[in-house]
Write a structure and sequence with these properties.
With 219 residues, this protein is of the alpha/beta class. It has seven helices and six strands; from the N terminus they run E-H-H-E-H-E-H-H-H-E-H-E-E.
Length: 219
């Protein structure tokens, strides 16, 4: 008998450093007032669409936790926190504007833009981030597959993890994530697994539209 496993990936609401155009990585500037309103609006709207998730998992970064809680409170779900869903670390580039990075480290910025997988500020590579994010997504899938019938999970994370998870689910080799634009704040990307196939049903779908994300990696 055919069954369906659905996993929704949600990007956090607008943060202060998103607005200021600063690299964020695993540091946190907190949601803006607009970001909090956006997360609340998303939580209300998405709770009407996915009323009974079987699991809700979130990165443990504050901007992501705060976004996840807006949804979880409305559907009565307990949020499980997984640090493996954190945004890619950019080390001491955190808090730096894109312009400052280009001025101070032009060779690295140019090389990354050209597709080289380099650590920025002593942080992670995309490959390292993809490995841990893919493992986190596979844990969610395994938990849902261990239950009978159709199941649905909701995962809250950041922009680069969503791009990398999408490349993973489509089995696109690195640096395949670069073909996917940066997801907007509070957008939804949906995967479906059925009959041995893995499908990306939607990518960067805006339920509670806010400001578009910058297409450079600054999540």
């Amino acid at each position: 008998m055919s069954r369906s496993i659905v996993v929704h990936l949600v990007r956090h609401g607008e943060s202060l450093w998103n607005v200021e155009g600063r690299y964020q990585g695993q540091q946190d500037s907190g949601l803006t007032a607009d970001g909090r309103a956006q997360a609340a609006r998303f939580g209300e709207d998405f709770a009407r669409q996915v009323t009974r998730p079987d699991v809700v998992v979130s990165s443990d970064l504050p901007r992501v936790r705060d976004t996840a809680q807006q949804y979880a409170d409305r559907v009565g779900a307990q949020v499980v926190y997984d640090p493996a869903l954190r945004e890619m670390s950019v080390g001491d580039w955190a808090g730096m504007t894109m312009e400052e990075a280009e001025q101070r480290h032009p060779e690295i910025v140019a090389a990354v833009a050209a597709g080289e997988d380099l650590r920025r500020g002593g942080g992670e590579t995309f490959g390292e981030t993809r490995e841990r994010v893919a493992a986190a997504i596979e844990r969610v899938v395994a938990e849902l597959e261990a239950q009978d019938g159709d199941r649905v999970g909701v995962v809250f994370t950041s922009g680069n993890p969503i791009r990398l998870a999408t490349a993973h689910m489509l089995a696109v080799p690195a640096p395949g994530h670069m073909a996917f634009g940066a997801p907007d704040n509070c957008s939804v990307t949906t995967f479906r697994l059925r009959d041995g196939r893995r499908e990306v049903v939607r990518y960067n779908h805006d339920i509670a539209p806010g400001r578009p994300a910058d297409q450079r990696e600054i999540s």
